[in-house]
């Protein structure tokens, strides 16, 4: 599933091509994805001018000049693709006043499309309970420490809890914990204030580096221009079970990167350097 860096990359690509332009035709090719799609969506979009975009967690919001925002979730396999021929599993097509064509393709149909008043975006049922944005000023070591206080879940599970911090998924939780030298098996409530500060910094650095690389291309994810992200080449632990940890002093002393399963999700870490 695309995580925050991938969704941010998609949002920036859409913003660069669509903002300021008018949707001359919107075509909806099925009535539902994960949930029913508002049947009035094509009529609402057709003739509207795109005013801009916002990302909230792993969700995209396309703001129109009609005071309405389109909520978009890419789900497990969703892609937004510019100027490509109509594709199998293309569920929404936008044609713009400059001849740009955008298709929302989602083979597994775990994505979502909805309409909401722009002034009420944060009240949407999928957004209202979200925690702070990890790249914003509202997320910090003290904020994270307060959110983790008393938590008996693992720190890895806490990072995946969208009510604690928005947008972090499995890949970047593992990578941030490695940078912070914190074991994913630690109880969240056991983190000291300095450890929470270290982790908050690692989360921000990991996400910023991933965005700069265009995200991680894993399975279906591509950028709107069709290019792949390349942050997967910079993964330190994720998907690297059995390989030496780059921080260990030498191969002879390195126990190697381990893979464990937590709440049904694969976790990767170095037992020697993450405590």
Description:
The chain has 275 residues and is α+β, with helices and mostly antiparallel strands. Helices cover 24% and strands 21% of the residues. The longest helix is centred in the last third of the chain and has 20 residues, at 193-212. It is elongated, with a radius of gyration of 20 Å. 36% of the residues are buried.
Radius of gyration: 20 Å
Uncertain segments of ≥5 residues (pLDDT<50)?
none
Strand order in the largest sheet? 1-6-7-5
Main beta-sheet strand count, sense and barrel state: 4 strands, antiparallel
Task: Record keyword descriptors for this entry.
single chain; 275 residues; alpha+beta; four-stranded antiparallel beta sheet; elongated
Short description:
The relative contact order is 0.14.
List the helices and strands and how they pair.
Blueprint: H1 4-18, E1 23-28, H2 41-45, E2 50-56, E3 59-64, E4 68-73, E5 79-82, E6 90-96, E7 101-105, E8 112-117, H3 141-148, H4 155-160, H5 170-180, H6 193-212, E9 258-262, E10 265-269
Helix pairs in contact: 1-6, 3-6, 5-6
